[in-house]
Amino acid sequence: MAAFEYRQAEEVRDAFRRHGCKYLFIGKSGAILLGFPDTTQDADLFVRKDEDNCRSIVEALVDLGFEIDESQKTEILRGKDFIQLKNGPFDLDLIFAPDGIEKFDDAWDRRIGVGSVIHVFCHPRRISSPS
Q1: Is residue 54 part of a domain?
Q2: Could you give the CA distance from residue 87 to residue 61 in angstroms, rounded to a whole number?
Q3: pTM of the complete model
Q4: Is the dihedral of CA 103, 108, 114, 116 positive or negative?
Q5: Taking CA 126 as the corner, what is the angle to CA 124 and CA 4, rounded to the nearest 5 degrees?
Q6: Helix, coil or strand: residue 42
Q7: Residues 110-124: pLDDT tens digits?
Q8: What domain count does the chain have?
Q9: Is residue 62 assigned to a domain?
């Protein structure tokens, strides 16, 4: 699988926006979107764990071209802590319970908009911009 690209973040943003999903890019993919030099093979999304958002996520993923089987759909709808998806146009990890973050809304309050409003979680101890 090729490295994660900004274009893929835009595709996620567009599909998730169409379906009204609440999400944040986190981890290495989030850092890359903030301009830090690195590569990763997948995108990591922290997604809000509620029934409506989970249903919308399934619809958005199908819209993006992911083949979501019944088992994966069930895991998403119940908000399983960590789900790896490798059956779409790029690899994507859905994270409902990331280490060190208690509530989605707390992370949402610390988000940063990148480009044309791609939401990225920023750690409370904000790191300085890349040089």
Answers
A1: yes
A2: 10
A3: 0.81
A4: positive
A5: 105
A6: strand
A7: 887 776 656 666 554
A8: 1
A9: yes
